[in-house]
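User: Hey, my collaborator sent me this sequence without any context and asked if I could get a structure. I don't really work with proteins. Can you help?
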Amino acid sequence: MSEFDADKIRRLDMSVLLVFLALVRHRKALAVAEELGLTPSSISHAQKRLRDILGDPLFIRRPHGLEPTAFALELEPRIRDIVTRLQEVVSSPRPFDPKSATGTVRISAFDGEIAAHIPKLLAQMENSAPALKLIVRPFGRKDALRALEHDETDLALGFFWDLPARFMATSLYEEGYRVVMRRNHPLANEDVLGPEAFASTGHAVVSPAGDLRGIVDDSLDQMGLRRMVRVALPHFLPALATVSQSDLIATLPSRIVEDYADTFGLYHCRPPVELRSFPVSLVRHVKNQRNAMHNWVADALVGIARAEQRSAVN
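Assistant: No problem. I've predicted the 3D structure and written it out in structure-token form, which is a compact way to encode the shape of the chain:
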């Protein structure tokens, strides 16, 4: 059995509620008709419907106008609250003030995007939105989309393809690759690092699933070459640490290499094989597209990515 009286609720539409509030305020049907742009007969019909639904006269005719009954006066603040809440639903979102905003935004990304963007985002938040907090979780594509679907995360960063219509993506940039190794590695010279030398040395790869093969191997196959993969690591920063302390080399996304090569004392250069770039996007669920806090963080991430692009061009 339904907890609602569906018949009464269907008859109690918004226009009737607006008439009720205006009658309590003006106490004259003609003034209400003028305010709401309705005819006097429409006001009369609305009054009759209200009396039938609520089981009370609501307004008593007096020489000076319409006097609300005690029940009508009791109802007025409750109906006003209902109308106010409905107004909030149909109104545009309130302007977001990052300086005074509080709350937490949850972001999903692999450690490459985390390391490349979250420190810059936090620096911007410290100046512009000091009370906002971040939770960052290391989700790949499948888990990130599931988390967005179930309200377990708010934004996702990474390489996403063939997104269902319930997700919206904002392209941040096209990501390429760099080969990285310790600075005194025998191959730390772009003229020396040809395809054969590249394939014959030991490689570290990043694969959360533990795969020992990747996009580099597809390109080498076309050249009749095969590389020697010595270790598969789950994250990019451990890969940088690994090659800094060994003779292994790694082929990693450009941004994390360029941001952290100096930190780890590494040399990097262009790959000696052709590798396709891939888009990095910011993804949200369409149900949250009007969330002002999420939109502010999303705009900040887009701004960071575009500033990096301008810096790279210059």
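In plain terms: The chain has three domains: 6-90, 103-173+278-313, 177-269. You can pass these tokens on to your collaborator as they are.
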